[in-house]
């Protein structure tokens, strides 16, 4: 079982940037995928972006394509979410999640599958609040 430690949340103006960090503690990391998810008040947790720790393949939800970038630094065992050109609708509590890489019985890639099914993810960080306001 992995442990995830998040940081980087805060307040940003529309059009601004923020970078979140998720440090991954554990072993056999290439068996896992890691993703960033967000949950607004009264809403369900939704996938934002996910990355495979095996091959660095990535997936982005439509609302963040072209604005957010997920990447990892293997030397630091960290996964980052760089958020640029932020919009008010990006405001939410952001969570880092991890689970074993799985090949779905569909045409989804493993990372798309992870981002589409947050209810099935078994390992979560504590969450970090992101506010976007002018």
List keywords for this structure.
seven-stranded mixed sheet; four-stranded antiparallel sheet; 134 residues; mainly beta
Describe the fold and architecture.
By secondary structure, the chain is mostly beta strands. Strand 7 and strand 8 (78-83) form a beta hairpin. Strands 2, 4, 5, 6, 9, 10 and 11 form a 7-stranded mixed sheet that branches. A 4-stranded antiparallel sheet has the order 1-3-8-7, with no helix packed on it. The protein is 5% helix and 46% strand. The protein has one helix at 110-116; strands at 3-7, 10-12, 18-25, 32-39, 46-52, 58-60, 68-73, 78-83, 92-100, 123-124, 128-132. It is built from 1 helix and 11 strands; from the N terminus they run βββββββββαββ. The mean pLDDT is 96.
Estimate percent helicity: under 10%
Number of strands: 11
Q: Rounded to an integer, what's the Rg over CA atoms? A: 14 Å
- Quaternary structure: single chain
Cα distance, first to last residue?
Answer: 40 Å
Structural class determined from secondary elements: mainly beta
* SS strand fraction: over 45%
Query: Secondary-structure element sequence?
Result: EEEEEEEEEHEE
Provide the low-confidence segments as ranges: none
Number of helices: 1
Largest sheet: 7 strands, mixed
Overall pLDDT metric: 96
* Shape by Cα distribution: globular
